[in-house]
Fold these 2 entries.
Entry 1:
Amino acid sequence: MHFAILTLFPEMFAPLQGSILKRAQNTDLISIRLVNFRDYALSKHNNVDDLPYGGGAGMVLKPEPIYAAVRDLPETVGSRKVILTTPQGRVFSQSLAEEWSKYTELVLICGHYEGFDERIRDLADEEVSLGDFVLTGGELAAMVIVDAVSRLIPGVLGEAASAQEDSHSDGLLEYPQYTRPPEFEGKQVPEILISGHHAKINRWRRKEALRRTFLRRPDLIPGIKLEPGDYFLLEELAEENLSIAVWREKWQYLRPIPNKRR
Ligand code: ADE
């Protein structure tokens, strides 16, 4: 996967040179090209922004340097997606990260200052936001996208299974994890995890992932990819917990064919 990041602040991208992303670049699983679009400014003063037509506070990014920088990118052998980071975009999510991880190249255009010329939007296949808050610029958003997409590229994470078991990968939050010691300050590790009984452990993990999601993020419920045995787990959860019981009606329409007991 190749990333090209168009920014006025390439020095902000130092975090991409550490840890897992550093290893991924060293092993050529990913590459990150930083392009300072100030290098494509037309004026002798290297201006990349100008006053807004119609008046108002602040400066607006000019279209020409960004168009020129995108047009000057080396040809991609494969598929390319151009993404503009802006608080007005579609909210970034794990499923978008998964979709984008299939491309050969992602081009990320970072907006900055108070805004950008509306015609810059035409360069982008997608506009994406990190959430309903405003950052000083798109750089942090671009770094988050590079990180979330890169870890889905086969080989970037050490263990193949670890990306699949994450929170959000099947629409659920991740189950609770424990390590030694079995008791810490009176807090016990659930006995089932120490039992060595793998089928029971998997059932417990699935149930706790469902519990977490229902209690912490009920907004995720419609997107959960339920498995046949989940129906029984959900019934058990509803009996154990009143606030989950409230959701009983809502999961009726998600109800799978109960053909298998977990
Ligand atoms: N630029 C400024 N705020 C942003 C946000 N919330 N998401 C993406 N890019 C941004």
Entry 2:
Amino acid sequence: MNQEIRERTKWFMEDRFGMFIHWGLYSIPACGEWVMSEKEMTVEEYERYFHEFDPVDYDPVKWVRMAKKAGMKYVVLTAKHHDGFCLFDSALTDYKATNTKAGRDLVREFVDACRQEGLKVGLYFSIIDWHHPDFPKYGDRQHPMRNKEEYKDEKIDFNRYLDYMHGQVKELVTGYGKLDLMWFDFSYDDMCGEKWRATELIQMVRQYQPDVIIDNRLEGAGDNHGSIVTDQPNIYSGDFASPEQIIPPGGVCDEKGEPIPWELCATMNNHWCYCNFDHEYKPAEMLIRKLVECVSKGGNMMLNVGPDAKGRIPAQSIAILEEIGAWMEKNKESIYGCGICSLPKPEWGRYTQKGEVIYAHVYETPLGSLPLYGIAPDKLDRVYYLADGTQMNRGEAWNTVLYDDVAFVSFGENPVFTYPLPDKTDTVLKVILKDS
Ligand code: GLC
């Protein structure tokens, strides 16, 4: 992994926690942003949502404030998804928010809201476009018209599509001030890399936004990291890997075994966009522990919300964000700027680390004192309960002498006090070691 990528991704790897927002015309049928493909809808059939789109409650400041309160540091909005509809005022198409009942550039308001609230700004942009006439249809893996014989011998000019797609990216990187993140989505089969004229695209983006962080999907996707994990990343390899709905077992490393930047993107329920019948939300407790897991493996977590057709984030998502925020408020120090710990994973939870400081994330109640695995008694200086700063007592006693290579911390005089833990989601201890 080259130095340039390391430098560029510095803030990103420190911030650790972001919000993904999937919102567009597909929020009206409310059954997945792939509905056009899944139901094999024609452009005309799908366009009825374009005529209906009327997000009367759109207020991106509210969204961004929710993200901020949850402890998220950056937000990525779908400026355009695979259906080709643009939330921004593209001069290259009429298929945009400005021409709906919304009547305005919704990306502009989003970008302004992020800046106003001091969060980093990211835009998701689909390099796939099911609305554009020059995108391959028949036989494509996922185009809505993939099975329609009438498109079999259709003559398209794919370069014309690429000019259009590049033109829209240029509009985004030149028209909205400094962007912190561009999230392209996605490559598949031979639709990858130079097929998208990716070198040219990246050179153009870098010309206007030299510091913007870019994902790896101009050549990869959730199932393929692309050349970012090799010794010789392509210019369009991106700056981070983007595992989707899975936390890589050992984090993400390049061929030399060096950890590289990565970001898990995950849904709260089982859909990216608003889905009014999907109530299978992951509990906040689980999502907090998954965030910790990502950090302990050197990665970020970007957690998704899918606002409804009117522009409102679902109540369940808001409740989850609030719970996460309450935990983050007390424990953020063990997340921001933290990463992989030099010690192996302890059996009662996880370690994260920032410089010399180790954070013990305790999930399982010890019977008696807690063994700080990997830390020798003479190496331990002091331990605090992170949530309120209380200094904790050492736990070594007559019954720990058999384990004298491990430091112990006391959870109280009476073992009964250790159940339940002060924070049943994740009780964080700040562990200070002696100078070596
Ligand atoms: C996949 C899906 C897309 C979603 C993305 C988020 O690529 O195609 O709908 O936006 O994952 O990571």
